[in-house]
Amino acid sequence: MASILNTEPQVKAGTDTGFRVAENLCIVVSNDWVNDRYKRLVLAAPDTALTAEAGQFFHLLCPASEAGAPFLRRPMSVYQVDRALGRIEFLYKCLGAGTHGM
């Protein structure tokens, strides 16, 4: 991917809880095995995503299966944010077809 799509957070009138929702298309910097069960996903992310802190969640889109069936997004906890490099990291366990496809 050569570009990043960044939409402004959407807040419904009268429902502002301080949490913002945004959808970002990020560039995958790396997605390497840490050991035989876990992978570390590093994304180049826009400023809106870089406001996240460890422990917050993102819903990551998984690619479709080999049969073409779409997967639901996977909730992933933020592992690390490097604001200086503009990167956000996720550490995840590969259990099923969705996370193995990532």
| Unreliable parts | 1-7
Largest sheet: 5 strands, antiparallel
Number of strands: 5
Task: Give me the side-by-side strand order of the main sheet.
Answer: 1-2-5-4-3
In angstroms, what separates the terminal alpha carbons? Answer: 16 Å
Task: Give the % helix.
Answer: under 10%
Identify the CATH class of the domain at 27-62 and 71-101. Mainly Beta
As a whole number of angstroms, the C-alpha radius of gyration is 15 Å
Q: If classified by CATH, what would the architecture of the domain at 27-62 and 71-101 be?
A: Beta Barrel
Which structural class is indicated by helix and strand composition? mainly beta
Q: How would you spell out the order of helices and strands?
A: EEEEEH
CATH topology of the domain at 27-62 and 71-101: Elongation Factor Tu (Ef-tu), domain 3
CATH homologous superfamily descriptor of the domain at 27-62 and 71-101: Translation factors
Q: Which percent band covers the strand fraction?
A: 25-35%
On the 0-100 scale, what is the average pLDDT?
80
